[in-house]
# Entry
Amino acid sequence: IISRSFILIILAIFSCSGSKINDNINGGFESNYDGDNPDGWSANNLPLTRKYVKLSVDNSTAHTGDKSILISISDHHPKATTVYNWVRRVDGLKEGEIHELQGWVKTEKVISSPFIEVQFWNSSQTIGTASTAQGYLITGTKNWQRVNTIFSVPNGTSKVLIRAGISSSRNNGGKVLFDDIQIQNVK
# Structure
């Protein structure tokens, strides 16, 4: 008869067997900062709508650690739809490899769900994406929710980007925070 403790130890070992890709992606947003941005991340704070949105590091709320990233849309945002996001390049992923993108999302008064995704680019255009938007509908005001998606790196990929974002559509007065974003090998 196998003891209950032995089974728990074996489960713990196998559940931790996935290795993180590029531990330097700063998905916890705790590392050095470049101006207002977490190290390695940039915000698409667009000039025409800058006064209607705040993209910043949040030092008061985090899933783990002390920091997360925030997108807060003004009550007065124009009706034209704009997608706001934080972006980071990821190196070290190889064609054909299978990975899991995961992260944590916290929302306040959102109607259109936020997303975390990977984009695959060749030398001139996007050739694919994998997004948490298909598997998770996080609306309203929700505490930290784990989101993930499994993906394979397509042939012809020369650049991989992570995006964490939300559309302004129907999200006036809404806010989203992201934390602990990471990519792990699946096989």
